[in-house]
Design brief:
By secondary structure, the protein is an alpha+beta fold. The protein has one domain: OB fold (Dihydrolipoamide Acetyltransferase, E2P) (Beta Barrel). The protein has six helices and eight strands. Strands 1-2-3-6-5 form a five-stranded mixed β-barrel. The protein has a two-stranded antiparallel ribbon with strand order 4-8. The longest helix has 35 residues. The protein starts with a helix and ends in a 6-residue tail after the last helix. GO terms for molecular function: endonuclease activity; hydrolase activity; metal ion binding. It is found in: Membrane; Mitochondrion. Belongs to the LCL3 family.
Length: 244
């Protein structure tokens, strides 16, 4: 017969094993949640490779789950890109009540991710001594008013040659989530991006239709004399710039 001492010893050993398994599982789970949901990434260079892994070629875009970045837009640099301060978890992890987003240029240095709106191309602003394109100021003001200082979620689809995260961006407006690229096309301040490497998620048809309607209504930049119209892509090529 098994003695009482042996039964107690077996019980202790079993309990110790169970506790070790629970502790290990908890630590692994916490590490997974921390890396996926809580860890803050200050720049594009700090993002893990999984953010830029190629999407499955044969899988319909609407069924592809891409990693996302949640944060606050700290500045709009051009008419189709901006700077994001990553705030993973939002209010649940203390952002905007236990800790705040820096505001000064010094505090934000090397602490933001450069985001390029996926699927659209906006009129070019002045760069490196080159003149600005017509309606670039208006397009810039639209984007600044639409996302400046706002909390947005970026669905990451890639990284371009300028180390910008290329993504579809959602922002809440009047309680509804709006796709920024789509709304910019509707307002007439952008055209569908068609250069090599363009990504749209599952939004291409919606983008094309939005641009078509904006052209018909002659809103935004489509109010100009179309005989003189130069697309952002053509403008960049004529001034010796790569597609951006």
């Amino acid at each position: 017969m098994v003695s009482t001492v042996e039964r107690v010893k077996t019980h202790i050993e079993t309990s110790t094993i169970l506790q070790s398994v629970i502790l290990t599982t908890s630590l692994v789970g916490f590490r997974y949640i921390y890396i996926r949901k809580i860890k803050r990434y200050p720049t594009v260079h700090s993002l893990p490779p999984r953010y830029f892994s190629p999407a499955p070629c044969k899988k319909p875009a609407k069924y592809i789950v891409r990693p996302t970045l949640y944060g606050t837009v700290t500045s709009v640099g051009d008419a189709d890109n901006f700077r994001l301060y990553h705030t993973p978890g939002g209010r649940l992890t203390g952002w905007n009540w236990l800790r705040s987003v820096p505001e000064t240029r010094k505090e934000l240095k090397d602490q933001t991710i450069h985001i390029r709106l996926a699927g659209v191309d906006a009129p070019e602003m002045a760069h490196f001594g080159r003149p600005k394109q017509i309606f670039s100021d208006e397009a810039y003001v639209w984007l600044e008013n639409y996302v400046g200082g706002k909390k947005v979620r970026v669905q990451v689809w890639g990284r371009d040659r300028y180390d910008r995260v290329v993504g579809l961006v959602k922002v809440r407006r009047w309680g509804f989530k709006k796709d920024v690229s789509l709304e910019m096309l509707k307002a007439g301040w952008a055209t569908v991006y068609t250069a090599q490497g363009a990504v749209y998620g599952d939004m291409l048809e919606k983008f094309q239709r939005a641009e078509e309607i904006a052209r018909e209504k002659r809103v935004g930049m489509w109010q100009q004399n179309m005989k003189k119209y130069v697309s952002p892509a053509e403008y960049k090529r004529s001034h010796g710039r790569l597609d951006t």
